[in-house]
Design a protein that fits this description.
This protein has a single domain, classed as SGNH hydrolase (Rossmann fold). Helices cover 36% and strands 11% of the residues. It contains six helices and five strands, in the order E-H-H-E-H-E-H-E-H-E-H. It has a five-stranded parallel β-sheet, with helices on both faces. Strand 3, helix 4 and strand 4 form a beta-alpha-beta unit. Helix 2 crosses helix 6, helix 3 runs parallel beside helix 4 and helix 4 runs parallel beside helix 5. The protein starts with a strand and ends with a helix.
């Protein structure tokens, strides 16, 4: 079997952000063998090559005023080309789009991810650089309710309404996968940490990796 390349394109839960409520601390990251893409590599073994492309605060296709360079759309094509040929792209985005700064509905977030799917499916960065990679869509972790009370330095509740939006994305992303002939995996039952209500702890990273491992093996078994 030729080694398959899997690109994990996501946000802070792909990056491995360690849950914290102490914002005086620098951002801390789980070790590679503790975050789900690294664990996934171990589970898939040498038949697969797993590439981590997680970035804190990454959106589907929208820009922050600050920080810059978090728009997932603008970086996607060069990222695909850099790592080509890619057999499978895992899209794990959308949670940051729920922030009140962007004023986006769940449907608009779905449309944002749809643009990323189009970029991948119209590319030739897949097998032998003659076809498009396959795509696996994963909805964001559903935050715990208390995160909606979080405020930024200006007193804005920047995650107000986020829980309901992400709950809706579970079905909307499933619908998108069907529309675009992509694969879909619902990880919404994996609870984020009780510490910050958003990010995976070590146990959740392990569960996530195991579920994705099973899905990937099933995908390539039937291709």
């Amino acid at each position: 079997m030729t080694q398959k390349t899997v690109l994990c394109y996501g946000d802070s839960n792909t990056w491995g952000y360690i849950p914290t409520m102490d914002y005086s601390l620098s951002k801390a990251r789980y070790a590679r063998n503790e975050r789900w893409p690294g664990i996934l590599q171990e589970l898939l073994s040498s038949e697969y090559f797993v590439i981590e492309e997680g970035l804190n605060s990454r959106t589907t296709n929208v820009d922050y005023a600050l920080p810059p360079d978090r728009n997932g759309k603008t970086y996607l094509a060069p990222c695909l080309y850099s790592h080509a040929p890619v057999d499978l792209v895992i899209l794990a985005l959308g949670g940051n789009d729920t922030k009140s700064y962007f004023n986006r509905s769940a449907e608009q977030i779905k449309d944002g991810l749809s643009e990323l799917v189009d970029i991948i499916q119209t590319s030739e960065y897949g097998p032998m650089l003659q076809a498009a990679p396959e795509i696996l869509i994963i909805p964001p972790a559903i935050p715990l309710q208390f995160v909606e009370k979080f405020t930024d330095e200006n007193g804005i509740q920047f995650l107000k309404g986020a829980v309901e939006k992400i709950e809706r994305l579970v079905d909307l992303y499933c619908q998108l996968a069907k529309e675009k002939n992509c694969f879909y995996l619902n990880l919404s039952k994996i609870r984020p940490s009780e510490i910050d209500g958003i990010h995976y702890d070590k146990v959740s990273h392990q569960i996530c990796a195991k579920m994705i491992n099973k899905k990937i093996k099933d995908i390539f078994k039937h291709l």
